[in-house]
Fold this protein.
Amino acid sequence: MTIGRFEGRVAVVTGGASGIGRATVIRLLDEGASVVAADYNAATGAALVDDVAASAAGAEKRLRFVRTDVSVEADVAAAVSTALADFGRLDVMVNNAGVAGAFGPVEAIEVDDWDWTFGVLVRGVFVGVKHAARAFKAQGEGGAIVNTASVAGLRAGAGPLAYSTAKAGVINLTRGAALELAEDRVRVNCVCPGGINTPLLNQGVNEQAVGSLLDQVQPWPDHGRPDDIAAAICFLASDDARFVTGEALVVDGGLTISGGLRLPGAGGAGGRSMASFGAGMAPPGTTGVSKGSTGEAPVLRPPATT
Ligand code: NAI
């Protein structure tokens, strides 16, 4: 690890209380940054603050937790304002918060569930890019934005329909914003993780069992971990990536090059076979919306009988 790569730098990480976001917060702190972790879930946010205070001497002084709903513009603006007010600047914006969202057969998905999913996954990234861009332009020294997309945004069948469509949107939002902001030396990139063993995937299910299942989905012999994605995010956020912008960096142990999921049953009808993705053990055919690690219960509707 390159120690001190983010010394004196300030970052905001949405979805920073769990999984990939939490690993990114900890890595940024380890490498010298001050970090605002912005997350919907106040309980896991408090646990992050406690864990950092217990493990890394002094690092807690460089960490703030801000309870944030990324689908609400004012919340995201407030997280950026906290970075500016408490740490004096902004250098890195990581738009990472996510949920599995609406799932089930296309003919049964509720429009409200679809819109809610897009509110978190696409509007959340848009407002993060918007408020970071404002701060970076006012500062006049450039900046780095890293969005968390997914391999599900690159191909069909690697996630529920709404999730995959939203993540495809994040990839092109990244490219468009990179084009627009390049002249201000603001780099905009995204990561496309493969299957990573986080609470998003393993909630309601045994983490070890999900890990064993994930070991089988890609050519690499063992499954991806939050630290693997945090490392890629930190590369894109760092000066090591000075000339990288508009990139969608795939970090998936070879999943996409292998042609797709090798999970038993996740074949052509990926949208259906992935129906319970992120919603614990929802029975096949169930429709609803998973609210991920926010602390909110998923909405589960029984399979249609007609
Ligand atoms: P996670 O569930 O462990 O963490 C996601 C965090 O986002 C949670 O702390 C949650 O409270 C927060 N969050 C959700 N909705 C929010 C909202 N409206 N406002 C603020 N915070 C909110 O999940 P994980 O896996 O770490 O996910 C991080 C990102 O990585 C997500 O965008 C996800 O879609 C993406 N991803 C995950 C993959 C995986 O296999 N775990 C694969 C590809 C992408």
Observations:
- The beta strands are 10-14, 34-39, 63-67, 92-95, 101-103, 143-148, 186-193, 248-251, 287-290, 299-301.
